[in-house]
Specification:
Layout (H helix, E strand, L loop, with lengths): L1 H6 L10 E4 L18 E6 L17 E7 L11 E2 L10 E2 L12 E12 L6 E5 L7 E8 L2 H4 L18 E4 L1 H8 L4 H13 L17 E5 L2 E8 L2 E9 L1
Parallel strand pairs: 9-12
Antiparallel strand pairs: 1-2, 1-8, 2-7, 3-6, 3-8, 4-5, 6-7, 10-11, 11-12
Helix pairs in contact: 3-4
């Protein structure tokens, strides 16, 4: 052990190799795991990691692992115990038994679909989907997803055994739909917002309370999206360009 302590310093530094740009402009509304909604994102590689030769062969993989930094949580530090949203936010677990962003090194791991690799304008951009990352997220590593070893059939998921169900039926007011349809990718935005809001991003302790008059909102793809929830239905009442 003393030899290891001499060889490996306690404080290691990481180099950001790229930044991911996504429609998520704030934490509220982001799915709590990757792959729950088909939201597209683009990973812009930074020099000197933007050489096409570094990605030779990656196009043969359908998915990749992204190691990233929870950059929006850095100032908040870490906690030895956290309250996972999956347990309603009222049961605490050890931080290493969760995927909480409030970790000692604020590192996260996310698997996303690799849609294509773009080198047409110089440099490298990875177009991915199923992202659960905030716009501007620093990426520190990329690895191919290998199905035979990364998907463990006998794995047990602890308190998160199954994917969350879509909890809400989502409807758009005529005014909200009109604003969305006027956007460059209006149909895509409509589908993405339907998936996201159906997952019910409200805190778990709020879901059992009648809040038909309360307006919820999220900033997404340059839009301010607002909705109300009543009797299992989320009605998008307003979409405002920012």
């Amino acid at each position: 052990m003393p030899v290891l302590a001499d060889r490996f310093p306690e404080n290691l530094s990481l180099q950001v190799i790229g930044r991911l740009h996504s429609p998520f402009q704030e934490k509220f509304g982001i799915p709590r795991q990757p792959g729950l909604a088909g939201v597209p994102a683009v990973l812009h590689m930074l020099p000197p990691f933007d050489e096409p030769a570094m990605f030779d062969g990656l196009e043969d993989f359908s998915h990749v692992w992204l190691t990233f930094v929870f950059h929006a949580c850095l100032k908040q530090g870490w906690k030895p115990r956290v309250r996972p949203p999956r347990l309603g936010g009222n049961v605490s677990k050890g931080v290493f038994a969760t995927r909480s962003p409030f970790r000692p090194n604020q590192l996260g791991l996310s698997v996303v679909a690799l849609d294509r690799i773009d080198t047409s304008a110089g440099g490298v951009r990875l177009h991915v989907s199923g992202s659960d990352l905030l716009d501007g997220t620093p990426i520190v590593d990329i690895k191919p997803y290998i199905p035979y070893v990364d998907a463990v059939k006998q794995a047990v998921g602890g308190f998160a055994r199954e994917a969350p169900d879509s909890r809400l039926q989502v409807v758009f007011s005529p005014e909200a739909r009109q604003v969305l349809e006027a956007q460059p990718d209006g149909r895509g935005l409509l589908l993405q917002l339907t998936e996201l809001i159906a997952l019910d991003p409200r805190p778990a302790y709020q879901r059992e309370k009648p809040d038909g008059q309360r307006v919820w909102g999220m900033r997404f793809a340059g839009l301010d999206v607002r909705w109300r929830v009543e009797d299992g239905q989320a009605r998008v009442i307003e979409v405002l360009p920012q």
